[in-house]
Write a structure and sequence with these properties.
Main location: membrane
GO molecular function, one term: ATP binding
Subcellular location: Membrane
Oligomer: single chain
Strand order of the largest sheet: 7-8-11-3-12-13
Number of helices: 26
Membrane topology: Multi-pass membrane protein
Pfam family, one: ABC2_membrane_7
Strand content: 5-15%
Structural class: alpha/beta
Radius of gyration: 32 Å
Length: 663
């Protein structure tokens, strides 16, 4: 490129990382966990004094053996790494904070962690609400999504569910998601993992076009995805000799002003830079990269242009054989000389052979340009918190509707339980001494079934969703509080619906003589019990990263709740402990509403066992409260218990989100 062309396009953005070191606690084996906690922990350095740079227009491959530190370096440069990380990351000489880095870059993880029930179009359109400026219209979002699907060759698969896409298509969909914000820097962790050679080549070819071109034409895209990808549904040509599809900028000025993530500055060419960790690329994929970084033992041993690597190794005495994949040769050379003096020579000589230099053009102009760019990006405004909650609730409900078959099966078994209980207790009939225990047992089974059904029904939530939450919260897509509130609110209508439906079958068979008002009171109490049970279940879910562990460790909690629920032992045996039990509040409120208005219970003279003469005596015998406010106090207590569980659960989930490692 000559000087006039470079001046016309504007100064490059150069991202430089200096002396990056990353430390993790060393794992030491010991039979005594207490001793492990007390002894001073050693730290292991897995990234050692890594320095380098990348400029817009570069497509860089990070090569190295397993455990060389490729992913760690990628996460450290992109500021997606939490923990003991030292060193600096600067943009044209300006230090970059974590929140700034996530604004101007995107991180493509090795494994797809998007929702499988959405279609490709729905997923991108949904994410556009979070990632684009809040003043963006729906029409502009749809246009953006359509452009991205076309750019990554997924137009024909736009309405296919993600779970039905091939591995290569899912990779390209993940790439399209990251391009919504029009990032300047792309960080891709093993983007070709699990793909066949053609799909892998297509993904890297797409990245090459993003880094070297501002516009993608029909001709350039057809080279990657084939001519068939650019025909209309009727089979005719679209009539455009060149699809002037802006991947990273809109042409009209108002859109650039209102959506900073769709354009840098009005005069910017919007070229990108991408850096990928990659494992054993084929020779044709290797040739697509403009630069390579070789890593060994957490150190960068070479960084430079791809075509200069062969000379670099030749000068050190390692001749690249004919008809040999260069990537395989470089990795094999490093592996064969690990720990030898030659490996040290490679390390010492790496910067002498990097001929690109750090910056191009005027230093002052480049620094001013990056400063203006960062100010421009900071003016970006995401959607409000309440709208985040709304969108996440829509996502949860959409997932449930897409999984309606499994949901109906679960609901069917839930109702079978209701029918079974109604048949078992249908002979209760009138209120006699023999039916007092039956009524207490039926009410206890009502609350028990609701609490166990809802608590165990949500224990899987966080172990399954934590990778998605950690990534999307870490990327700033939405706040953790918005996600948690949306999750909790999405269960409230389900709790009330199932609570009243479950009760309806049993009430119609057993308690129908007591009137409709008691049905409403009992239904409200069961619904609140379900809400509290959701809090309890989410608490169990947040304790561990495995749903199996969460279910197994629920046993001691269940035992305590059942013992102090008022059925298996008198609640006054251990004063105060009854208030720890969900079952106590639920059983007490149900028993209170059922018995408080019963003035007389038949008490035959020839009965051998003790005789209770009124509902008040039944409550007193079970040590339940009989004050007028008892029912509403128990309702409030159930809500309070739910809130306490949710506060603790939120803290546990937040701890996982902010733990060390990359997201």
């Amino acid at each position: 490129m000559n000087d006039s062309q470079q001046q016309q396009q504007g100064p490059s953005l150069c991202l430089e990382w200096k002396h990056l070191n990353y430390y993790v606690p060393a794992q030491e084996q010991s039979n005594y966990s207490f001793w492990n906690e007390c002894r001073k922990k050693r730290e292991l350095r897995i990234l050692q004094d890594a320095s380098g740079h990348m400029k817009t227009g570069d497509l860089i491959a990070i090569l190295g053996g397993s455990g060389a530190g490729k992913t760690t370096l990628l996460a450290a440069i992109s500021q997606r790494l939490r923990g003991n990380l030292t060193g600096d990351v600067v943009l044209n000489g300006m230090a970059m904070e974590r929140h700034q880095m996530t604004r101007i870059s995107s991180f493509l993880p090795q494994f797809e962690i998007n929702l499988k029930t959405f279609t490709a179009y729905e997923h991108l359109y949904f994410m556009s609400h979070f990632k684009m400026h809040r003043r963006t219209t729906k029409a502009e979002k749809r246009q953006r999504v359509g452009d991205l699907l076309l750019a990554v060759g997924l137009r024909d698969s736009a309405h296919t569910r993600i779970q039905q896409l091939s591995g290569g298509e899912r990779k390209r969909l993940s790439l399209a998601e990251e391009l919504i914000t029009d990032p300047i820097f792309l960080f891709c962790d093993e983007p070709t993992t699990g793909l066949d050679s053609f799909s892998a080549y297509s993904v890297i070819k797409t990245l090459r076009h993003l880094c070297t071109r501002r516009r993608i034409t029909k001709h350039s895209l057809s080279q990657v995805y084939g001519e068939d990808s650019f025909e209309t549904a009727s089979g005719e040509s679209s009539g455009c000799s060149s699809i002037e599809m802006e991947i990273v900028a809109k042409s009209h000025e108002s859109l650039l002003r209102d959506m900073p993530t769709l354009g840098l500055l009005n005069s910017s060419p919007n070229k990108k830079a991408a850096i990928c960790s990659i494992h054993q690329p084929t020779s044709d994929i290797f040739e697509l990269f403009t630069h390579i970084i070789l890593m060994d033992g957490g150190r960068i041993v070479y960084q430079g242009r791809t075509e200069q690597a062969a000379k670099f190794f030749t000068d050190l005495g390692y001749e690249l054989p004919l008809n040999c994949n260069p990537a395989d040769f470089y990795l094999k050379t490093l592996a064969d000389n690990q720990g030898a003096q030659n490996a040290g020579a490679v390390l010492r000589a790496r910067y002498e052979h990097d001929t690109d230099g750090l910056y191009s053009g005027s230093w002052l102009l480049a620094r001013s340009y990056s400063g203006d760019y960062l100010k421009h990006m900071q003016s970006f405004k995401k959607i409000r918190w309440i709208y985040q909650v709304y969108l996440l609730m829509v996502r949860f409900m959409t997932e449930d509707l897409r999984n309606i078959k499994s949901g109906l099966i679960g609901f069917g078994f839930f109702m079978i339980t209701s029918v079974t209980l109604s048949l078992m207790y249908s002979g209760i009939g009138g209120l006699t001494q023999r039916t007092v225990q039956d009524v207490g047992g039926s009410l206890f089974m009502l609350s028990t079934e609701m609490i166990f059904t809802f608590s165990y029904g949500v224990t899987y939530i966080f172990p399954a969703a934590l990778p998605i939450i950690r990534r999307e919260v870490g990327e700033g897509t939405y706040s953790l509080s918005a996600y948690y509130v949306a999750l909790v609110l999405s269960f409230v209508p389900v709790a009330f619906f199932k609570g009243y439906v479950f009760l309806s079958v049993i009430y119609a068979s057993i308690y129908y003589t007591r009137g409709f008002l008691l049905y409403l009171y009992m239904g409200l109490l069961m619904s609140l019990s379900a809400v509290a049970a959701v809090g309890y279940g989410i608490f169990l879910s947040s304790l561990f990263e495995s749903d199996k562990m969460a279910s197994e460790c629920a046993a001691p909690f269940d035992l305590i709740f059942l013992l102090f629920g008022g059925t298996y032992m008198n609640v006054d045996t251990w004063p105060g402990l009854k208030y720890m039990s969900l079952f106590f509040y639920s059983n007490e409120a149900l028993m209170y509403k059922f018995w408080i208005d019963i003035d007389t219970i038949d008490c035959p003279v020839n009965e051998d066992h003790p005789c209770v003469k009124s509902g008040m005596e039944v409550l007193q015998q079970a040590s339940y409260r009989t004050a007028d406010y008892t029912y509403w106090l128990d309702c409030f207590s159930l809500l309070l218990v739910a809130i306490v569980f949710h506060i603790v659960s939120f803290g546990l989930v937040r701890r996982y989100i902010h733990r060390s490692g990359y997201y």
